[in-house]
Amino acid sequence: MKPQLGLVVFCFATFSTFVHGAWIERRQNDLQPSVEEFRDFIYSRPDIHDGFNNMFWQIPNATEYENDPTGLLPQTRDIPTMLKRLNDMLAGPPKYGPGYIPFPLGTILIWPMCTEAGLGTFRNAEVSSHLGNILKAWAAFLSTGESRSTLNNGTYGWLKEEVLGRDFCDTYVCDPREEYWGFKSWDDFFTRPLRPGKRPIDAPNNASVVVSGADSTPLRIARNVKETDEFWVKGEPYSLRDMLNNDPRTPQFANGTVYQAFLAALNYHRWHSPVNGTVVSVETVQGTYCALSPSIGFNATEHPDPPAEEFSQIFMTNVATRSIVLIEADNKDIGLMAFIAVGMIEISSCEPTVNVGDRVNKGDQLGMFHYGGSTHVLIFRPEVDIEFIEGMEDAIRDGTVILLGKEIAVVKPQTA
Ligand SMILES: *[C@@H]1O[C@H](CO)[C@@H](O)[C@H](O)[C@H]1NC(C)=O
Ligand SMILES: *[C@@H]1O[C@H](CO)[C@@H](O)[C@H](O)[C@H]1NC(C)=O
Ligand SMILES: *[C@@H]1O[C@H](CO)[C@@H](O)[C@H](O)[C@H]1NC(C)=O
Ligand SMILES: *[C@@H]1O[C@H](CO)[C@@H](O)[C@H](O)[C@H]1NC(C)=O
Ligand SMILES: *[C@@H]1O[C@H](CO)[C@@H](O)[C@H](O)[C@H]1NC(C)=O
Ligand SMILES: *[C@@H]1O[C@H](CO)[C@@H](O)[C@H](O)[C@H]1NC(C)=O
Q1: Which of 1, 182, 184, 237 could form a disulfide with 178 if both were Cys (CB 3.0 to 4.6 A apart)?
Q2: What are phi and psi of 64, to 5 degrees?
Q3: Closest CA relative to residue 304, chosen from 56, 48, 119
Q4: pLDDT band for position 14 (50/70/90)?
């Protein structure tokens, strides 16, 4: 059984109103500005208004879709309920639900996202921009001290062994004796740094060894990847020109190799360099937040893929909000390579922490994700003779996490 990407969802803010009296007081009657703007946009645009109405109507009237994916709340089936739940989301930090990893936005929208109307509407750039603003407002809240209200060991708190394991503050910078374990905000907890030495780098002096850039589960290796592909139709393929946001260097990667691996909700959320090299480009692309692959919708032959575990993760590399870091590796047999950190649904931001011209060594930090399950890809040029480690296929099949700094591949010297 593959571990879930983490888009197992739980509608905290709203659920909490049933179980947590204190939260009712904190709820806001008025819509927050970003939600109000989204409402005004929806009602001012008949096409978008129809798109949202249709996605709620197109959710099958089957028992299994009566409730949201947590089974705790009736499925959102109209625009006012959606807006109210988005507004509720903004009023609090994620609460750990016993047995759940909370993804409030996914909880509200995952079934609508799987409908034909949803697949289309969430590709709209203005819809994405509004969702981006709502997530930015949430991210701002998650950076405040107030967002620490779930950093405790209560029923819905995160700071306990059953959630974080036994050695958490041994691995990450925190102190269980301090209030909130020393975290300054919920985001500070989510983006916690590792303690030195906790992720030793394999073969630090051997330039032919490429290491894992994140604590992540390999999903797919694709060879001979096309410069452009019709991913809208087929859903699954990588399309380099889309992934790289039309970067002029895209042709250099045509027919190259893509390695994709995902980070689960409780994994470490920073990303690091897989090689020694120089950063030659850093770009963060505002893309979609909730657009899923057409191949997973309710019309698909297989049942929809609510955890977005497979096809949508690949699809999202082409369209989602993402940070693209190009690195010129010191090893000429690798040369120019790409690292793309891809946000998924709740991600409020992918934040690169390097600049053009920076020298990076294997294992040096490149950036981080702020809240959410997320995925990343490495792209190598077609000339690169790259061989992935024995056991990679097993890791893909079994969903094994490969830690940051572990060898993932060896690049062979070019013979020609
Ligand atoms: C579900 O039922 C509602 C109300 O009867 C209807 O408007 C909607 O079209 C139905 N949806 C589907 C997918 O059949
Ligand atoms: C929970 O936290 C409180 C306050 O920090 C502490 O007194 C208590 O011992 C903790 N309980 C457990 C089970 O760790
Ligand atoms: C680097 O690692 C590769 C793969 O393990 C190995 O074949 C090669 O001999 C190593 N090179 C050096 C200089 O140690
Ligand atoms: C990477 O750079 C560091 C620092 O200069 C150096 O110690 C290390 O040997 C280099 N590794 C490779 C593989 O070139
Ligand atoms: C990529 O492969 C295709 C088909 O194998 C070939 O026609 C094309 O010339 C290749 N492109 C590059 C840039 O190598
Ligand atoms: C999905 O199924 C519905 C009902 O069978 C049909 O009207 C619609 O055209 C289908 N959409 C796609 C994209 O196949």
Answers
A1: 182
A2: -70, -15
A3: 119
A4: very low
For residues 267 and 404, give the distance between their C-alpha atoms in angstroms, rounded to a whole number: 11
Return the HEC string of 27-78: CCCCCCHHHHHHHHHHHHCHHHHHHHHHHHHCCCCCHHHCECCCCCCECCCC
Question: Which ligand is nearest the CA of 250, by number?
Answer: 5
Residue with tokens 């703007």: 37
**Pocket flag, ligand 1, residue 66 (CB < 6 Å):** no
Q: Please provide residue 234's backbone torsions phi and psi, each rounded to the nearest 5 degrees.
A: -90, -20
Spatial neighbors of 380 by CB under 8 A, at least 6 apart, are 253, 256, 257, 259, 334, 337, 386, 411
Q: Whose CA is nearest to atom 12 of ligand 6?
A: 299
Position 262 pLDDT exceeds 80: yes
pLDDT at residue 25, rounded to an integer: 35
pLDDT band (50, 70, 90) for residue 10: very low
Q: What sections of 305-386 are H helices per DSSP?
A: 311-319
- Closest protein CA for atom 6 of ligand 5: 255
Q: Which ligand is nearest to the CA of 252?
A: 5
Ligand 6 atom 6: residue of nearest CA: 299
Verify whether ligand 1 is closer than 6 Å to residue 43 (CB atom).
no
What is the pTM assigned to this prediction? 0.87
